[in-house]
Amino acid sequence: MLLTITTTARPATDLGHLLHKHPDKAQSFEQSFGTAHVFYPEATEERCTAALLLETDPQALLRTRTSVSTPDFALAQYVNDRPYASSSLFTVALGKVLRTAIRGVSRSRPELAGTPIPLVLHLPAVPCRPGPEKARALFEPLGWTVRAEPVPLDPGLPGWGDSHHLSLTLTGTLRLSEALSHLYVLLPAMEGGNKHYWVDSTEIDKLLRAGGAPVDGVEDGTGAGAGWLVGHPEREWIARRYLARRDGYVRTAMARLAEADDRSAEPGTEDGEGEATGAVPRDPAVEEREPSLAEQRAGAVLAVLEAERATSVIDLGCGGGRLLERLVGVRALDRITGVDVHAGSLEAAHRKLCEGCHPDGGGRHRSLFTDHDARPGDRSARRARPELLLGSVVHRDRRFHGHDAAVLMEVVEHLDPSRLAAMENVVFGDAAPRVVVVTTPNVEYNRHYEGLAEGAFRHADHRFEWTRAEFAAWADRVAAEHGYTVRRLPVGPEHPGTGAPTQMGVFTK
Asked: Backbone phi, then psi, for 436, in 5-degree steps?
């Protein structure tokens, strides 16, 4: 099994500082199933190539084998593609030998570790039964130019056709840690989840950590590449195959990815607002799948706004723009505003929604109208462009005034309980829109998520999660104090004993 990593960033030999492996040395690392070697076929100032070669020992692998799967034939443990093709063996070696590089740490070149550099990654044999198109669908959304060529079963016998292996070459300008994390997750997914070790709930954290999602309050990704799996259009396919098609683990992983779906900026800031949800492109291949909880939640909010005939909406804690992107398509809205405490989230939302907007002198983006198949002057056919504001739901802001409806979608649980009163005064007392929609997790439902420890919250940045009774008491008190009536609605599949995963409060004057 072979991987080569080539860069032309000058001086190219700085690749050694990123990999923590000196170009002048060949190093070997013993694994429980063989030996991994790191060496440099070329190392000049203009071009440097590092190679990771894994030699497997079939007898050692058989001794350490923990899988309960039955081989296809008697000699399957000795006659297979593992010595030649990337597999779970290779990704385990990759994670151990290049662990510091995957984490994006370089003591000698810290600035280089966070800098995108030109890279070419080549793997001569990658198992991928879905074929070259799937390889492109996995890597191209991450910024790679992909060359995926089927490997013939026997070059001397072309009539035999192609094998299910690909010769894979990835070319792009990315941080090395990003590139390695992509391989660490996607190679096992391409292989199909046929891991050489037993898959348990710890694989969920491994998947989320390598994909840049927060685990135990820490985001392993750094810089622009953090959270790459959260917004990947093939994330459900990736999770299912990485987790060896263990349905319970897949559901848990998808739920935790949905909770992180909008966190395009760092978690745990002073105010903690907004579980920023970035839009995830739909996968045509799974168009008939059940909508994710994040999609159901956004759909429920839109349905309420439509039923209440809202004409203007402010999304408090808008994050990366998941809800804003859908609000833009609502023709009844003539004003849309997004607010978030994280500048990085607003930048992501701006890139997604506001190409062509012009920032005003206050750092805001003016609300624009774009015509979609509309006749000149036909205002009813225009769609509002969101105005994006940097702000906090715990501080009064006159820019929040004048909206017909306000939405706090998965926001309140990111506030310290001591700051809830400030949020209530800002939203219900000062801004006082006609309609306020609040969604928050139902902690009683957490027991249905496999791999989520008892008493743990769904997201590392949550400061609390309410039971249904606690949410009802809070909603009734707030409504009574500020002159609203409230109705509570479930979002997502309801369980007889625990209710739905998300609880919604619709406050109306």
From this structure: -125, 130
Q: Quick one: tokens of 267?
A: 């978690």
CB 151 within 8 A of CB 163: yes
The two structure tokens encoding residue 32: 């429980």
Helix (H) / strand (E) element for 19: namely helix 15-19
Q: Are 327 and 277 in contact (CB under 8 A)?
A: no
Q: Which region, left, alpha or beta, applies to residue 491 given φ > 0 means left and ψ of -120 to 50 means alpha?
A: beta
Structure tokens, 205 = 């954290």
Residues 99-126, mean pLDDT to the nearest whole number: 92
Cβ atoms of residues 212 and 227 within 8 Å: yes
Cα separation, 437 vs 419, whole angstroms: 19
The 3-state DSSP class for residue 177 equals helix
Contact 508, 484 (CB under 8 A): yes
Which range scores top for mean pLDDT: 23-37, 168-182, 183-197?
168-182
Burial class from Cβ neighbours inside 10 Å (0-12, 13-18, 19+) for residue 290 reads exposed
CA dist 368 and 360 (Å) reads 12
Q: Which helix (H) or strand (E) holds 295?
A: helix 293-307
Alpha-carbon torsion angle 417, 323, 499, 445, nearest 10 = -60
What's the sign of the alpha-carbon dihedral 360, 364, 365, 367?
negative
Cis preceding linkage at 11, omega within 30: yes
Total number of residues shown for the chain = 509
Nearest to 293 by CA among 322, 324, 264: 322
Q: Express each pLDDT in 351-369 by its tens digit.
A: 877 554 444 434 444 433 3
Q: What pLDDT, in 10s, does the model give residues 123-145?
A: 999 999 899 999 999 999 999 99
- Nearest-angstrom CA–CA distance, 76 and 130: 23
| Beta bridge partners of residue 48, listed in sequence order | 7, 43
Q: Are 456 and 480 a contacting pair, CB within 8 Å?
A: no
Q: How confident is the model at residue 371 (pLDDT cuts 50, 70, 90)?
A: very low
User: Tokens 């923990």 sit at which residue?
Assistant: 66
Percent of the chain with pLDDT over 70: 78
Q: Which ranges in 192-267 belong to alpha helices (H)? A: 202-210, 235-242, 247-259
d(CA 383, CA 368) in angstroms, rounded, equals: 9
Q: How many CA atoms lie within 13 A of 303 on its CB side?
A: 10
Q: Six-digit token pair at 469?
A: 């009774």
Residue 447: CB atoms within 10 A of its CB come to 12
Other Cβ atoms closer than 10 A to 29: 15
Of the candidates 380, 399, 412, the residue with the CA atom closest to the CA atom of residue 338? 399
Helices and strands (DSSP H and E) totals, the chain: 15, 18
Structure tokens at 422: 């400030």
Closest by Cα among 330, 343, 327 to 274: 343
